[in-house]
Design a protein that fits this description.
Length: about 160
């Protein structure tokens, strides 16, 4: 039991350290180079390339891919998604973030648990969903560019923006 706890602690430490290094040294340069649209699309492409864990996979491979996936999520994907909210009024921002965190992520986790055994039959659906996500990434990136060029959307006088 202590060996397992120690292993998970080392995995979490690796994820946190790599995330910190990537956010400090690479995120701003990468976002300036390829933009938010490219970063969102890149994360979707990268996530679709990670192999699905097999029942008899080696522990080392599971750890490497698990750490890679989590670092990509925390260091690149989440900050890129959060950048989309910088041009949205505060009331809409928090409603949307709560919906995404609760319904999309938790609902997606629950749904994936239910359908894991039927993944082979759902491969075409997953590919279509990945294409839709990629199209959404390009759409949101283009919208953010137009919002940024035009300035942030004006807020109603009754809801002033606060930091």
């Amino acid at each position: 039991m202590t060996e397992r706890t120690r292993l998970f602690a080392h995995i979490d430490l690796a994820v946190n350290m790599l995330t910190l290094v990537i956010q400090l040294l690479a995120f701003s340069r990468l976002s300036a180079l390829i933009g938010i649209t490219g970063m969102l699309a890149l994360m979707l492409w990268f996530r679709s390339r990670l192999p699905v864990a097999r029942r008899r996979a080696h522990l080392t491979a599971l750890i490497v891919f698990g750490v890679t996936r989590r670092v990509g999520e925390f260091a690149v994907s989440k900050p890129a998604r959060e950048a989309l909210f910088t041009v949205v009024p505060r009331s809409e921002r928090y409603k949307a973030k709560n919906f995404i965190d609760t319904v999309v992520y938790r609902g997606g986790d629950a749904l994936s648990g239910w359908v894991f055994g039927k993944l082979g039959a759902l491969a075409v659906l997953a590919a279509g969903l990945a294409l839709a996500w990629t199209a959404l990434a390009f759409y949101l990136g283009a919208r953010m560019k137009s919002w940024t060029r035009a300035g942030a959307p004006s807020l109603p006088a009754s809801q002033p923006e606060r930091s």
